Amino acid sequence: MKIITKTKELKNILGSINNLSESIGLVLTMGNIHAGHLSLIKEAQNNNKLVITSIFINPTQFDNDDDYKSYPKTLDQDIVKLKSSNCDLLYLPTVHEIYPKGLVIEKSTLKYRNILCDGHRPDHFDGVTTVVNTFFDIIKPKNSYFGEKDYQQMKLIDEMVKIKKIDVNVVSCLSIRDKNGMSLSSRNSNFTQKQSEIFESLAKKIKLLVKTLKKNNLKANFNQFKKELSKININKIDYLEIRDEKNLEITSNHHHARLFIAVFIDKIRIIDNFKLY
Ligand code: PAF
Question: Of the listed 37, 120, 255, 256, which one is catalytic?
Fold first, then answer.
């Protein structure tokens, strides 16, 4: 696996490949590689000649400096995992390489806004779409792979691609879930023992809620559920909503419905979503 840190060098390598019109599959990550990322790489390998993974902890998508600084950094282990996944190239740029003019962000996408995560993290998605656009511009992949765990992110990136008429397929991939039913997330590697126990209890409660919602035609007592979360010390809930996966609007129709949830275990924000059909 080639490891490239300089954009210029990467563009030189890709120049010759693009001329041969080999298809490039791209998996963008912020590191702390886990089975979810590896499944995206596998999917990319099945459909492209060359697979590039990036690791870049994007400063413009964090709400505060503490969160940015405490984001898990595990580069050595990540490289070992990526090598054994047979990824062709790892792009590992510095902040200056991606933001040569400073940390500027563009608000390019107005659809799917002011709801779910965007309602609670106002600039977050502008940071995400800005950095993803930069990566697409540098690498010009044919296909780029995103996990459904970050469902709203995936919809916004897809929308950005349409607005900017970027020639890339945004491929949405199923969440890889732990045996407790929750999607894998890099943030979970920061859990203490106590937080892991709370997470396990949360997972059990969500599993039951999803089962009830499916059985009772999307009806369940959300207030009761919130009370139960407070019993396990989860008191900050950003949202707990049923939305249509196609347009992200609130729905009471079980076709295409998903439960979207964002809660905090201490300062760690957990987001996930669950099909209800
Ligand atoms: O989902 C992520 O890890 C990030 O938001 C992404 C897409 C790599 C952009 O920084």
Answer: 37
Residue 232 lies in a domain: yes
- Evaluated on CA atoms 213, 125, 79, 135, the torsion sign reads positive
* pLDDT tens digit sequence for 165-222: 999 999 999 999 999 999 999 988 889 999 999 999 999 999 999 999 999 999 999 9
In a domain, 180, yes or no: no
What is the mean predicted confidence (pLDDT) over 146-164? 98
Q: Does 245 reside within a domain? A: yes
Nearest ligand 1 atom, CA 56: 10
Q: How far is the CA of 209 from the centre of ligand 1 (A)?
A: 28
Domain count, the chain: 2
Whole-number Å distance between alpha carbons of 93 and 36: 22
Residue 212's nearest CA partner among 246, 262, 254 is 254
Count Cβ atoms below 10 Å from residue 265 Cβ, excluding itself.
Answer: 23
Q: Report yes or no on whether pTM surpasses 0.90.
A: yes
Q: Taking a C-beta distance cutoff of 8 angstroms, is the pair 18, 140 a contact? A: yes
Predicted local confidence at residue 189, as pLDDT: 86
Residue 107: DSSP 8-state:
-
Burial 58-96 (b: 16+ CB within 10 A, else e): bbbbbeeeeeeeebeebeeebbebbeebebbbbbbbeee
Distance CA 138, CA 134 (A): 6
Write out the H or E segment, with its range, that includes residue 144. strand 143-147
Q: Identify whether residues 162 and 205 lie together within a single domain.
A: no
Ligand 1 midpoint to CA 15 (Å): 25
